[in-house]
Amino acid sequence: MKRFVLMVLAILLVAVALSPGSSGEASGQSAGLVSSVLNRMERNRQSLKSLRAGISMEKYNSQLRDSEKYNGSVAYLPASGREASVRIEWQSPQHEILAVINGKYTLCRPRLNMCYVGSSKSNRNKAGGILEMMYMSKQQLETRFQPVQDVREETLWGNVSTIHLTLVPKSNASFKYAEIWVDSSGMPVQTKIVDKNDDATTMRLTGMEKNAKISSDEFNLRPDSNVRIVKG
What we know:
Layout: H1 2-8, H2 10-17, H3 28-47, E1 51-61, E2 66-77, E3 85-92, E4 96-101, E5 104-109, E6 114-119, H4 128-134, H5 138-144, E7 149-156, E8 160-167, E9 175-183, E10 188-195, E11 200-210, E12 228-231
Parallel strand pairs: 6-12
Antiparallel strand pairs: 1-2, 1-11, 2-3, 3-4, 4-5, 5-6, 7-8, 8-9, 9-10, 10-11
Helix pairs in contact: 2-3, 2-4
């Protein structure tokens, strides 16, 4: 788990966190672009009842100058007044399933016949900080992040037109900065989290199905009796 769990949830934080007005001190044409993007993001956040998508992740090790690539699928149900439900199932390079529901996480690794369980806010899980950010108010965002930086248009692979934004935490964060790419509907389709040691995790959503019918049962993992359970 460790930082892996935190990073796989990172792409979801902006979809439900940012609201209009958090552009801070941006000025001129950039300020207008930021305002437009954040308005679209807020409309997307309000209308998003569920999400199912393909997900890819690339983890870059700055010391080794090497990357690991992951591919899988994600299901997401936002919630009001409590933590969202998230399920990420990696198919490569190894089969793993992470589910978060009602403040609890389960991470199953079939090849090891083992599942980790615990609070999504636990130190071992490392997901608490990201999940907390997902529900930050506008005031909390403005308190914790500097004004939006490096605003520009950018086309991602697959010919997806986006607006690129950079968020820099003001203090006491586990990462140096985050980059977000937002599509024309206001959906964050890619994020890059850069750690203080310059390691980076880039995540991308593809084949998105917004407001698809998703049962809450998908987030309740029920390991077989012979699976070893490790409490975190």
